């Protein structure tokens, strides 16, 4: 067997070990919340078929005493893969580790198929799978990042099949099937398909063939988009103005706190620089060792297509910038394939030194981002983890006002974040007898508020500073004020401790 395959397999084993270390060593990163996770929990507890595969997103489960809420505007298909790999086997599969490793294997294999198993392909594929943009999205489940993550694997494989002159018809038909199945995941797959179409055209410069191969996927994706928009409009009562402001270019923005092009540009591009800096460094290193490829004149079009795809949903992606990195990452992959020559042209020793430095730089970037991410989400993630680990999912969570110091008029987003049925402490004080009906356990979450005399302390957490905070404080002051902050009222300071009491 070719030695290139042994090298590629060895690098993959090393990547799997590093992912295993990250997955077990950073548990807070895996605590995703929001309606996709709730849907998978409900499928797991009540049965996928019993719920007819619907996106049932009742926080705290179906027995929350509330009318069943089916999340509108998205097709259920995009959650089936993470459900089968993450939620269905549960602890048997490492509570999501199997999903992580499967996506890692699919992405790595697809990138090797695109780039080849020579040194160029192994380096770019491995650096991509260790970049913050990949790690962040593979650890979480969201409406956009699941199909976008799968788009890297699906479109890299399909693009590699369609641009090779030696590819036979059955393999091209397989690429067509992969693209068609991929388009069923969600309407957002249209963006990844568009980036791949630009790459195929730039590689072959044959517009007619590009149109022929991508038309079936375009038709399927357009159908899914129309169904999703109809579902969103009919079930949620959304108007065209809501869609314009929340997703596209409306001045109100996703969260009604306002959005401009410059604000969106800074957020999206700064996060993408953090997400793909190791991949950019690897591209520069290989350019030094390999030189320019035959398609270098067209190299920037795929990444520009990725940027255009992200800015097509400007307001949504500016509000969720980490969800927007996959399309730009896919465009960057295709651009590097066009830009870089296949084989090294420098001395073997010099090539080895450059590649080693690239690997070290990638690890430094990953560690630096983990430090930044920990500081950015320490309070919020640790609080959600505290609740998840010490209260049953079907409990009633009474939240004191000092946990949410801003005026709270709608508890539904907080209930979704915690995946628990939530009421305020004031509401509990007035309706305790009514809310205690049934056997649902009741817990109080507080920061400094004195609990009722009958409450029993379950756990107390303290937010301890670390050595990394001395580095992160000045960096994070810029990060949270210029990039990650979404509204003027966002809390910036951390509480010292939280307490959970059993009522």
Describe the protein in words:
With 503 residues, this protein is mainly α. The chain has 2 domains: 3-31 and 72-345, no CATH class; 383-502, no CATH class. Helices cover 62% and strands 5% of the residues. It contains 19 helices and 5 strands. The protein has helices at residues 3-25, 35-46, 77-87, 97-115, 119-130, 132-138, 145-163, 169-183, 189-204, 207-236, 240-246, 261-290, 300-312, 314-319, 325-339, 348-390, 412-418, 425-435, 469-484, and strands at residues 396-399, 421-424, 442-446, 456-462, 497-502. A 5-stranded mixed beta sheet has the order 2-1-3-5-4. β1 (396-399), α17 (412-418) and β2 form a beta-alpha-beta unit. α4 (97-115) runs antiparallel to α5 (119-130), α4 runs parallel beside α7 (145-163) and α13 packs antiparallel against α15. The chain is globular and about 75 Å long.
Question: In total, how many beta strands?
Answer: 5
Helix/strand order, N-terminal first: HHHHHHHHHHHHHHHHEHEHEEHE
The major β-sheet equals: 5 strands, mixed
Chain-averaged pLDDT: 81
Percent in helix: 55-70%
Number of helices: 19
Strand ordering within the main sheet:
2-1-3-5-4
Low-confidence parts: 486-492
Taken from the alpha-carbon principal axes, the silhouette is globular
Rounded to an integer in angstroms, the radius of gyration calculated over CA atoms is 24 Å
| Category from helices, strands and their pairing | mainly alpha
Number of domains: 2
State the separation between the terminal residues, measured CA to CA. 65 Å
């Amino acid at each position: 067997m070719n030695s290139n395959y042994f090298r590629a397999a060895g690098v993959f084993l090393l990547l799997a070990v590093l992912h295993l270390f990250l997955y077990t060593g950073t548990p807070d990163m895996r605590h995703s919340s929001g309606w996709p996770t709730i849907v998978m929990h409900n499928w797991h507890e009540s049965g996928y078929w019993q719920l007819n595969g619907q996106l049932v997103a009742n926080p705290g489960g179906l027995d929350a005493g509330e009318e069943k809420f089916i999340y509108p505007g998205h097709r259920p298909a995009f959650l089936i893969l993470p459900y089968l790999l993450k939620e269905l086997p549960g602890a048997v599969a490492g509570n999501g580790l199997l999903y992580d490793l499967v996506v890692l294997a699919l992405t790595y294999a697809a990138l090797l198929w695109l780039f080849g198993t020579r040194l160029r392909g192994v380096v770019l594929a491995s650096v991509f799978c260790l970049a913050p943009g990949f790690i962040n999205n593979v650890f979480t489940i969201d409406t956009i990042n699941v199909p976008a993550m799968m788009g890297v694997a699906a479109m890299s494989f399909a693009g590699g099949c369609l641009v090779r002159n030696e590819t036979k018809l059955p393999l091209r038909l397989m690429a067509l099937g992969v693209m068609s199945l991929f388009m069923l995941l969600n309407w957002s797959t249209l963006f990844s398909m568009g980036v791949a179409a630009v790459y195929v055209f730039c590689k072959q410069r044959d517009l007619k063939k590009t149109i022929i191969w991508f038309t079936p996927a375009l038709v399927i994706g357009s159908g899914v988009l129309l169904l999703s928009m109809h579902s969103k409009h009919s079930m949620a009562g959304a108007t065209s103005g809501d869609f314009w402001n929340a997703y596209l270019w409306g001045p109100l923005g996703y969260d009604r706190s306002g959005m401009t092009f410059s604000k969106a540009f800074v957020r999206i591009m700064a996060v993408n620089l953090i997400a793909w800096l190791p991949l950019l460094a690897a591209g520069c290193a290989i350019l030094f060792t390999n030189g320019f490829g035959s398609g270098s004149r067209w190299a920037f079009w795929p990444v520009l297509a990725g940027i255009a795809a992200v800015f097509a949903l400007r307001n949504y992606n500016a509000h969720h910038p980490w969800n927007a990195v996959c399309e730009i990452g896919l465009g960057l992959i295709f651009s590097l394939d066009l830009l870089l020559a296949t084989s090294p042209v420098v001395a073997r020793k010099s090539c080895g030194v450059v590649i080693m430095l690239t690997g070290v730089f990638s690890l430094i970037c990953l560690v630096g981002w983990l430090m930044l991410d920990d500081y950015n989400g320490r309070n919020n993630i640790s609080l959600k983890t505290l609740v998840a680990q010490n209260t049953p999912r079907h409990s009633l969570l009474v939240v004191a006002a000092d946990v949410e110091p801003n005026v709270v008029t709608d508890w539904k987003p907080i209930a979704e974040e915690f995946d628990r049925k939530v009421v305020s402490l004031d509401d509990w004080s007035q309706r305790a007898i009514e809310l205690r009906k049934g056997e649902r356990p009741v817990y109080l979450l507080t920061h400094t508020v004195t609990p009722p005399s009958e409450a029993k302390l379950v756990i107390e957490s303290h937010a301890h500073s670390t050595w990394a905070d001395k580095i992160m404080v000045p960096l994070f002051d810029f990060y949270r004020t210029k990039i990650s902050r979404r509204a003027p009222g966002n809390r910036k300071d951390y509480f010292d401790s939280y307490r959970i009491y059993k009522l």
